[in-house]
């Protein structure tokens, strides 16, 4: 699957539950949008990710990736402890200088 390295690393960190690796791939002022909330900066992103892992114990497995300009969209099968498990979600990423500057889960 053709994805920028930072996006590949995001899913590897997610699958390996590696918060340190995950935090390293975001720019210092990155923004994550999920469940109607935005999280800005690596500390907030780390806290969001850890809280989501604790709540849902989820793992996202990419099944398709598309790039349109500077936006990368990855469709992933997400398994965890939530209703209708598993679900298919779309993740979008903007990457600049090898770091994720914005990410969202749709």
From TrEMBL:
Q: Where is the SnoaL-like domain?
A: 7-103
Superkingdom assignment:
Bacteria
Q: Which InterPro entries match?
A: NTF2-like_dom_sf, SnoaL-like
Q: Which Gene3D superfamilies match?
A: 3.10.450.50
One Pfam family here:
SnoaL_2
Q: What is this protein called?
A: SnoaL-like domain-containing protein
């Amino acid at each position: 699957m053709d994805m920028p390295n930072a996006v590949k690393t995001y899913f590897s960190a997610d699958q390996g539950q590696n918060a340190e690796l995950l935090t390293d791939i975001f720019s210092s002022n990155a923004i994550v949008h999920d469940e109607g909330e935005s999280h800005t900066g690596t500390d907030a992103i780390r806290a969001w990710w850890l809280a989501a892992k604790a709540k849902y114990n989820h793992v996202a497995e990419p099944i398709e990736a598309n790039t349109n300009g500077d936006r990368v969209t990855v469709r992933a099968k997400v398994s965890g402890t939530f209703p209708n498990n598993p679900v298919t979600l779309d993740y979008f990423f903007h990457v600049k200088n090898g770091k994720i500057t914005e990410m969202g889960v749709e």
